[in-house]
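Handout, section 4.2: multi-component inputs.
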Amino acid sequence: MPSDRSAVTLAVSTVVFALRPDPATGALTLWLPLVRRIREPYEGMWALPGGPLGEDEDLAASARRTLDVTTGLQPHYLEQLYCFGDVDRSPSQRVVSVVYWTLVRADEDASALERPGAENVEWFAADDVATHPGRLAFDHTTILAYALDRLRAKITYSPIAHAFLPAEFTLAELRAVYEGVLRRPLDPANFRRQILAQGTVEPTGGHREGTRHRPPALYRSNPARSRATLTIPADQEIPS
Amino acid sequence: MPSDRSAVTLAVSTVVFALRPDPATGALTLWLPLVRRIREPYEGMWALPGGPLGEDEDLAASARRTLDVTTGLQPHYLEQLYCFGDVDRSPSQRVVSVVYWTLVRADEDASALERPGAENVEWFAADDVATHPGRLAFDHTTILAYALDRLRAKITYSPIAHAFLPAEFTLAELRAVYEGVLRRPLDPANFRRQILAQGTVEPTGGHREGTRHRPPALYRSNPARSRATLTIPADQEIPS
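Output:
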């Protein structure tokens, strides 16, 4: 622990991921909000929502404040992603950014869309931005690519996909989340078998009404398996 | 990104884990080095090695510098663990700590032991310290407990255990690492079957010589499965 103040500025920024349907196909795609910079450095370019940490503000509180101001979002899922601190990541001064990420449910996204957006805030297709370096200020393209990698990795070994969904969902809705995040179709029967084998969801006993054929069963997160692959079973099996 | 400097000090600290054998039983236990504080706040108490981030220093470079100064360790495995930034975690000023962690091989640990230790640095049994709140300054007991939790979780779904071992190792040596980290015996036959099923190790073709019975086979990390559970196989299987 230091006794002197370091000459480093600390900022908190957030990568927001929402899954929005393609108007033509209905397939889900990852989108995120960006803020247009109105001063140097990088004036006119886009950046992740964020700002300097207030002296009396916890890290997550700072992320929530700038998210609310820029997008109106008050997301239920907010986690620390990584701390980025390379010496040369900001041209004019040394800035270390603690980056959070949030996954937005469709209903949260809809509320944010209804609200008049803050000036200089727009939503973009995440992979389009991540694959066009030079659109984002600072090292934010690197941060976005890292967040996409983490999401695509974590969805394969944790129930993080549930954060995009309401409390009750069908297996088809869950599969659509996986397909949107992973950007490829998954075999419905294989998907069903593997998700049920994981034990990360449990049937609610209810069904989705209002569909044409037989109503599909509803599921919810199984709280006992919220860290499914992180649990070592009592019989000393090491999950592969 | 901020245009003003925030009034927050940024520090970098490191949790170092080495596995040391119990003199009586030979069983491995997690140990870590701590630094005795020589000024207020928390004068006389123990803290993780660390200090304020230099303005021209990357985060990992800062962790490596303080580790070298305090313990002589220059570990090959160093990763960011988490950023701790609660408002009240330091009494006199606002400090945000980016915490790294490192896993030390026995040969690295032996080199550090041969070297005269820095004044006010001692090694402690990690779980003993973590379960006695009040021995560590600031929120370092919380940080240590978090690091232990992460290590015990991550060893079940990643090849992180290899970081404690030299490039070539027997399955019995690998099992001893798991047993030391998880603090309980594992069935040798089950362990062997599961590790080989994971595909995270591959035989070198060589054997450990100098043993009394038939020489055990040597293994090394399989680079193709360095992020074993993070890989989605081509057949669209979702790892459970």
